[in-house]
Design goal:
4 helices; 3-stranded mixed sheet; homodimer; globular; alpha+beta; DNA-binding; 2 domains
Chain lengths: 126, 126
DNA sequence: GACATATTGCAAGTCATTTGCAATAATGAG
DNA sequence: CTCATTATTGCAAATGACTTGCAATATGTC
């Protein structure tokens, strides 16, 4: 009879491996060229969708017209510093409960999530 | 002889009018359907690029895979509250100099710009 | 009004992402 | 282990947002 389940397949192993390898917000194109045709592009997209639905990755937007994906493992919630010169991405943690509380009080809006990314120049590029 | 200048043309009037009409972050598709084929889609894109270069509009990303444009007129720098149920967008102003200062101190990174948008439920949809 | 050139419209192209579908492979049953 | 069930993949084609090339057009100037 019908059983349902999620299978541990080659594409899923490989995408996970690629995300671990980069350990920063990574685009589909980067994953694809790292995996060098070992799996199909479409499978990368589908696997990333699955990882997102399973809450194993964060989707990050830097406004480049494409999505970036980051494993949710280590650190909890954090944001990014993106160097506009060298492209380097660093994580930054910040205390934001006050900010969120202020926003909710000021607006009567229930905040469920937010985007916060910083763009500028890293120490080396300044 | 050669004179250089920016011309005040029909497409530019119309795009400005559309942005004024919506007075919230507006997508190219919305502008286009509001203007109902009075100008070409390409011209909308080009006009918005021009307005952006001239620092007359802000480009806003809500992570939908497309850009939104907002006239820079009235308020200065502000962020948005986007209702995930009804799609309504409200502006919110906040004191963020401290946050930026903290980030720069903590990271030695020079912050030039940032994205900050909130998603959740507006008062009516909660 | 005529000219120089900034600007437009159209068609085609690009890039990221999605979808349909037949072929394939992972897992539970026997 | 073998088979059957069905989740999953690969491929090709489609979609959506946006860009580009270029000839046709419109604007501001003299």
């Amino acid at each position: 009879m019908a059983k349902i389940g999620i299978r541990y397949t080659k594409p899923r192993k490989l995408v996970f491996e690629a995300l671990t390898h980069f350990s920063k917000p990574t685009s589909v194109a980067e994953i694809n060229s790292y995996l060098k045709n070992r799996i199909n592009l479409t499978s990368i997209y589908r696997t990333l969708d699955l990882l997102k639905k399973s809450d194993l990755v964060n989707v990050i937007l830097f406004g480049e017209g494409k999505k970036r994906y980051e494993l949710k493992d280590k650190d909890e919630h954090h944001h990014h510093l993106v160097c506009e010169n060298c492209g380097d991405v660093k994580d930054i943690e910040m205390q934001e409960t006050n900010m969120l509380k202020n926003v909710e009080e000021q607006s009567k809006f229930k905040v469920l999530k937010h985007n916060l990314e910083f763009f500028g120049l890293c120490q080396d590029c300044q």
